[in-house]
């Protein structure tokens, strides 16, 4: 009986975390007059009432959403664990929240990756330039440039 109870708790936790993820990345930004765009290096940064900013200012399309998809290349997974935002090489990636850099290295299919940790979240920026400008342990502020896109 205890085993079933533990499985149910894990399943419930998974559903809650999945719902939060979908809410953060797939529900459009709600406009609010009390939130004003801020400029940073002549780039408009859209602030979200939930406290997060879009990670690539000026590039709002999603080329491959989270979830089931047709594999883009032979041998690739048909389930995508990320959200792909197409942008040209050299485009600035910014921190979506205040936090700490907890990973910075090559990570298999994700290529060069940076992980930003805050509260109980970890956000990984994959396919970034290998010329890192942040280090593990660095504290970053929301909107701060943490990397450039890679091809």
Any idea what the CATH superfamily is called?
Answer: Glucose Permease (Domain IIA)
Query: How many discrete structural domains?
Result: 1
- Provide the CATH architecture: Distorted Sandwich
Helix and strand succession? HEEEEEEEEEE
The best one-word shape is: globular
**Which class best fits the helix and strand makeup?**
alpha+beta
- Share of residues in strands: 25-35%
Total helices: the number is 1
**CA-atom Rg in angstroms:** 17 Å
- Would you state the CATH class? Mainly Beta
Strand order of the largest sheet: 8-7-6-9
The whole-number mean of residue pLDDT values reads: 76
Overall number of strands: 10
**What's the CATH topology label?**
Glucose Permease (Domain IIA)
Distance between the termini: 51 Å
Tell me the helix content: 10-25%
The largest sheet, given as strand count, sense and whether it forms a barrel, is: 4 strands, antiparallel
pLDDT < 50 stretches: 27-44
Q: Which key features would you list for this structure?
A:
single chain, 151 residues, alpha+beta, Glucose Permease (Domain IIA), 4-stranded antiparallel beta sheet, two-stranded antiparallel sheet, globular
Structure characterization notes:
By secondary structure, the chain is α+β, with helices and mostly antiparallel strands. The protein has a single domain, classed as Distorted Sandwich (Glucose Permease (Domain IIA)), CATH 2.70.70.10. Helix content is 17%, strand content 26%. It has one helix and ten strands; from the N terminus they run H-E-E-E-E-E-E-E-E-E-E. It is globular, with a radius of gyration of 17 Å.
């Amino acid at each position: 009986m205890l085993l079933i109870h533990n499985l149910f708790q894990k399943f419930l936790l998974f559903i809650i975390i999945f719902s939060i993820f979908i809410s953060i990345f797939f529900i459009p930004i709600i406009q609010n007059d009390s939130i004003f765009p801020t400029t940073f290096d002549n780039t408009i940064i859209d602030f979200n009432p939930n406290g997060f900013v879009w990670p690539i200012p000026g590039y709002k399309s999603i080329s491959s959403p989270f979830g089931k998809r047709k594999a883009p290349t032979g041998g690739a997974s048909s389930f995508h664990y990320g959200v792909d935002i197409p942008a040209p090489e050299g485009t600035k990636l910014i921190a979506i929240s205040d936090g700490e850099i907890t990973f910075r290295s090559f990570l298999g299919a994700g290529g060069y990756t940076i992980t930003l940790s805050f509260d109980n979240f970890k956000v990984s920026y994959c396919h970034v330039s290998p010329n890192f400008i942040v280090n593990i342990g660095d504290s970053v502020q929301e909107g701060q440039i943490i990397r450039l896109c890679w091809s």
